[in-house]
Amino acid sequence: xxxxxxxxKNINCVPDKVGVYEWWFSESDAKKLLKCxxxxxxxxxxxxxxxxxxxxxxxxxxxxxxxxxxxxxxxVNQEHRTSAIKSGTLSTLRQTISALTNLDESTSQDTxxxxxxxxxxxxxxMQPTEIDDYEKQAIQNGYYPLNIQGNKSVDKxxxxxxxxxxxxxxx
Length: 171
Fold this sequence. Notes:
By secondary structure, the protein is α+β, with helices and mostly antiparallel strands. It contains eight helices and five strands; from the N terminus they run βαβαββααααβαα. α5 (92-100) crosses α8 (156-168). The N and C termini lie far apart (34 Å). The model has no long low-confidence stretch (mean pLDDT 93).
């Protein structure tokens, strides 16, 4: 596990290889993000204890076309510039956190950074040919509420709501 705050200080702690990654959020931040979402089964979310605090796995991603270092840097350090927001190139994780905190993407950078800084990332290096199948299986067999694409484990109404919220807060 790598603390996001450590990544923000030194991106070189993330491997310059391809693979997959899981985002683990502190219990308090996970609850804030999922508040009032009665159709989320929090009992199905993977949880771990890290340094005396509980963390919940909410998001799973892959880095196949670029390294884990570049992909995670995009999520961790991207600025909420108007050009990135309008073109749709703002990190999908950042878009989702903005929406779930009920803030427009143009004004949510500090809030998103604060939530990300309290998170952990687990990275798994693997061969490029293994990544798609691994990610598909992880999302289908796991329970990652912040993943939209290909997610059959999470309630469809929640995913529909999440898509709508992301669209609403893309301003």
